[in-house]
UniProtKB/TrEMBL annotation:
Residues 12-323 form the Enoyl reductase (ER) domain. InterPro entries: ADH-like_C (IPR013149), ADH-like_N (IPR013154), ER (IPR020843), GroES-like_sf (IPR011032), NAD(P)-bd_dom_sf (IPR036291), Zn-ADH-like_protein (IPR051397). This is NADPH2:quinone reductase. Gene3D superfamilies: Medium-chain alcohol dehydrogenases, catalytic domain, NAD(P)-binding Rossmann-like Domain. The keyword Transcription does not apply. The keyword Oxidoreductase applies. Keywords: Oxidoreductase. It comes from Sphingopyxis italica. GO terms for molecular function: quinone reductase (NADPH) activity. Its EC number is 1.6.5.5.
Length: 325
């Protein structure tokens, strides 16, 4: 089978490449899936150089999430049958024609989504759900500022927030991205992600500031966000795409009464398995009901994985990039 295998941890994905590997057999409690599409996420890029906290034993196959059809089941698996359409993942191994995962790592593919859309939503929408519902406890009508709103997770957050009844301000770096966000999900406002954004946020919220701020960027964006968050607001720390991990003087959250909350969707599910299962069921239900719709920026053949990775590195993707093994 074709697979994107990481053989060495090198800069520029130099230790990764297509490989022809044996088709794996499912063991007890495992399921083999014929992968139809695999989502590309920043951790996939980082893991090729050892820059992510998860460091699988070498060699390994890249890919956190996929959509496909059950091909074979191992001993003791009763919930899945050959031909079932599923989505799932297992932290790596998705970017291959076949993937073997524990049966519990799969769930039924929402019927209204294509293979590519189904591969694009599990990681991004789960992060958005944990951030907005579990961490921020966002309420209908509250103002939400989404930084990095054109990225895979940012765009999912815009979509989910609209479904939850929040008032959404989407911040993105280019006019083209802002136009795409407005066309796809019609947030209440779309603003430029540039210094001085706090003035626009204050104006839109009638001087109160955003009740919730979703920040996967960090750096200067975080610093300025502390100046346009509402009293009692929740500033969600999702990542540091800018490259700088910011610091906050604790007198600011004291004076303004806001909270700084870290978001780790996968870890949340591991620490609270029952709530984790509820989170997954919630986003699946929203997808099945047509209330959320993941956007696929590009669907590429697995052989074009470098271009897919580069789209994320150049910050040009609006939504998700997926690969077809």
């Amino acid at each position: 089978m074709r697979a994107l295998q990481v053989r060495e941890l090198l800069p520029g994905h130099g230790g990764a490449g297509l490989a022809d590997l044996p088709i794996p057999a499912p063991g007890p409690g495992e399921v083999r899936v014929r992968v139809r599409a695999a989502g590309v996420n920043f951790p996939d890029l980082l893991m090729t150089s050892g820059g992510y906290q998860l460091k699988p034993e070498l060699p390994f196959v890249s890919g956190l999430e996929f959509a496909g059809e059950v091909d074979a089941v191992g001993k003791g698996v009763a919930d899945w049958n050959a031909g079932d359409a599923v989505v799932g993942g297992n932290r790596f191994g998705a970017m291959a024609e076949y993937a073997v995962v524990p049966a519990g790592a799969l769930r039924a593919k929402p019927g209204g989504l294509s293979w590519e859309e189904a591969a694009a939503y599990p990681v991004a929408y789960l992060t958005a759900y944990v951030a907005l519902v579990r961490c921020a406890r966002i309420e209908p009508g509250e103002w939400l500022l989404v930084h990095g709103a054109a990225g895979g997770v940012g765009l999912a957050t815009v979509d989910l927030a609209k479904a939850l009844g929040a008032r959404v301000i989407a911040a993105a770096s280019s006019a083209e991205k802002r136009e795409a966000i407005a066309r796809l999900y019609a947030p209440d406002a779309v603003i430029a992600a540039e210094p001085g954004f706090r003035d626009g946020v204050k104006a839109l919220t009638e001087g109160k500031g955003a009740a919730v701020i979703f920040d996967p960027v960090g750096g200067d964006v975080f610093d300025e966000s502390t100046r346009c968050i509402a009293f009692g607001g929740r500033l969600l720390v999702v990542g540091f795409a800018s490259g700088r991990i910011p610091e906050v003087s604790v007198n600011m959250p004291l004076i303004k009464g806001f909270s700084v909350v870290g978001v780790r969707a996968g870890e949340y599910g591991r620490r609270f398995p029952e709530r984790g299962a509820e989170n997954v069921a919630a986003i699946d239900a929203l997808a099945n009901e047509g209330k959320i719709r993941p956007h696929v920026h590009a669907a590429l053949d697995l052989a074009d994985w470098r271009e897919g990775f580069a789209m994320l590195e150049r910050r040009e993707a609006v939504g998700k990039v997926v690969l077809r093994p």
